[in-house]
UniProtKB/TrEMBL annotation:
This is Claudin. Belongs to the claudin family. Keywords: Cell junction, Cell membrane, Membrane, Signal, Tight junction, Transmembrane, Transmembrane helix. It comes from Labrus bergylta. Coiled coil: none annotated. One of its GO terms (molecular function) is structural molecule activity.
Length: 171
């Protein structure tokens, strides 16, 4: 009975990880600029995500624009987008497999088949974690490398945003 409880806990954590990865993939704050200007309609915060760029103005207006052209994006951003979507898909497939492999369910075949299904689900979660960790690390490295460049003015430098903190290898 204890192993069934551990399986349910692991399933709940995997579901939470999939939710965290999906939210992080969609959030617009992968890199954030905290610039303060004096005019009324000047941006005080600029955020860039995988799918859109957002600006928060000093008047309280929040405006976002979608990144429509894939070819104009830098390679690290294209790779991060693809890997994060793949991570979500692999984790969702792993959840489907895990639900079949749970000891407390009636579908999924014999005990032996359920064990193999649970192992396959675990492999999916490990792969999903790697598909989340590697691009997030690459993205963070790019942001920090540009931030530490002394040639650029402070107004064009960004720091890692909250989306990078919300999914430390979520699945």
């Amino acid at each position: 009975m204890l192993s069934a409880a551990i399986q349910i806990l692991a399933f709940a954590l995997a579901l939470l990880g999939l939710l965290g990865t999906t939210v992080a993939t969609l959030l617009p704050n992968w890199k954030v600029s905290m610039n303060v200007w004096s005019s009324v309609m000047t941006p005080i915060s600029q955020m860039q995500g995988l799918w859109m760029d957002c600006v928060w103005y000093s008047s309280g207006v929040f405006s976002c624009t979608m990144k429509n052209s894939v070819l104009s994006l830098p390679p690290y951003l294209q790779t991060t987008r693809a890997a994060m979507v793949l991570s979500c898909m692999v984790a969702a497939f792993g959840l489907c497999l895990a639900s079949l492999g749970l000891k407390c369910t009636r579908w999924g075949g014999s005990r032996r088949a359920k064990g193999h299904t649970a192992i396959a689900a675990g492999g999916c979660f490990i792969l999903a974690s790697l598909l989340c960790l590697v691009p997030a690390s690459w993205f963070t490295n790019e942001v920090i490398t540009v931030f530490l460049t002394t040639d650029l003015p402070d107004s064009s430098k960004y720091q890692p945003g909250g989306a990078l903190c919300s999914h430390p290898c979520s699945p």
